[in-house]
Amino acid sequence: MDKVRKEKELVVVSENKVGVLHEISYRLSKAGINIDSIFAYVSDWEAVFRLVTTDHDTARRELIKIPYIKSIDSKEIVVIRMEDKPGSLANLMERLRRLNVDIETTYIIYRDGKYTDVALQPSEISADALLNLLKNNLK
To answer: What pLDDT tens digit does each residue of the chain (139 aa) get?
Structure first.
């Protein structure tokens, strides 16, 4: 059976330059913070890092100290645990389509061969609303 929960994510925008990921990971490690998941990409001249950490607030305070960080935004995401088998993601996306939920961002944050945790950030409703929709519509 699928389990669903809410998490906090940091969206860090920085200059796109060599060493940014090192600086992020180094600062967090020095503060004793573990990175549970990271999704990074380049958009124009900026680098974007989406992070779920073991200490959201301290991570934010540490990362804002990096000089080439342009912004840090806190977002709420919904994480759904499902069976790690072909078709599980398709079934979830079908469920969201039927509920008319548009997803802005999705990525896998954990996978062990038995279960997969998928992060979802809705584009037009709150994470709380998505959490309630999923809890009320799990099969």
So the answer is: 469 999 999 999 999 999 999 999 999 999 999 999 999 999 889 999 999 999 999 999 999 999 999 999 999 999 999 999 999 999 999 989 998 999 999 999 989 999 999 999 998 888 888 888 888 876 5
Starting at the edge strand found earlier in the chain, the sheet holding 103-111 runs: 35-43, 46-53, 3-15, 69-83, 115-122, 103-111
Domains (range + CATH), the chain:
9-75 (3.30.70.260), 77-136 (3.30.70.260)
H-run or E-run covering 88: helix 88-98
